[in-house]
Amino acid sequence: MIFHRIFLVFLVVVVHADYRDPIYPIENPCLAILTRLAQVSADFLNCAVTRSRPFRLCEGCVTSYGELFDLINLLTKTYSDLDRTITCQQFLESYDSIQLVAQMITFVDNVWSTSFCLRGRIVRWVLFENERMEKGKAGLMRSQKDDILRDDITRTIEQEKKGRRERANINACKMKNPEDSSPSTSNRSHHRCIASFHDVNGTIYSNLTTDTVDFFNKKVKFDLCLYNATGQIVPTVPIDLNVTANTSVCSACVTTYNDLNDLFLKMTQENEGVCMDLVDTMNYTRLLWSKIYACRRHDPDYMAVIGISVFIPTLVLVFYVSAVFKGKRKLDKRNKKRFHHDFFLQANEKKKNYLDVKKRLPRRLAANARVDTQTWLWSNPNE
């Protein structure tokens, strides 16, 4: 009889059980997700720090990132109450002021996005949750115990609507005035290492972009060329590599190095940002090529250098010599002009003085004339 009652109770529990929760029959699934979230976030941080030098975050930590991404999406689909009105996201973030979970997610998202690993960000799950809460806002308003939570959700939804309207207005203005937008900058994007990733039965599979695969293939060819020329394996961080200058390395591997460097320059010109895995790899490659092996990408044209070195001083010398001769000619011309002016001025002065003297009667002749006149007047006419 006792076993019969126990069987009936078990049958009732099984029939009325709710299997829609992702991790049933745990009593509080949000705490279980929180425990798993702590483990996965710790794995991601450990992977990120371990692969910080040389930098291989995008390629090496995509598995931890994918698991963390799945858990964060699970927070928006799992509920903490029987009424299915409060998600685990709200349960873990909306009831404390520190918000450790939100800060952890933001930190991981910033590390991943600033490294240009994958297009898209983890924090988009917040927007997805806002859209879902907007549809179910009528049901939430019937609950009187979450007034503060409803106000926060409503405020967030209104801000999101306002932001969408502003972005729509900006896009409409750009469509009306296409000359205001520069296609050279609007079409530029960020280069990503990871094309996509997906979860298959708990296993994360990822795909690299075509440019990333091409870049690493060229890097392998360059490393193989260095190994064939030197007999040494190229280290991942070539700082403490003790080698001597080897001209055979520069001549033998210049083609593979130029191919690798040209591809990287092309990616930097076509995109505003490049995946940090590729940037760090190229930085160490350039350090190895220019500093350690003392190679140059292009051999200088010494004839051009010598020609320029001779042409510029010659041009300066010709300029100064011509300036000196031209200045001397101007000075001689000015002196000659001044001499002619003084000569003609003196000649005119002499001519003028001569004419004045000629017109004027001398004093001695005038006195003699007066004496003769007086003598003639007082003399006897009969004599």
From TrEMBL:
Key words, A-Z: Membrane, Signal, Transmembrane, Transmembrane helix
GO cellular component, one term: cytosol
Transmembrane stretches, start-end: 302-325
Pfam family, one: OSTMP1
Coiled-coil ranges (or none): none
Region forming the signal peptide: 1-17
PANTHER family assigned to the protein according to its UniProt record, in alphabetical order: OSTEOPETROSIS ASSOCIATED TRANSMEMBRANE PROTEIN 1, OSTEOPETROSIS-ASSOCIATED TRANSMEMBRANE PROTEIN 1
Protein name: Osteopetrosis associated transmembrane protein
Naturally occurring in which organism (per UniProt): Philodina roseola (Rotifer)
Lineage per the UniProt record: Eukaryota, Metazoa, Spiralia, Gnathifera, Rotifera
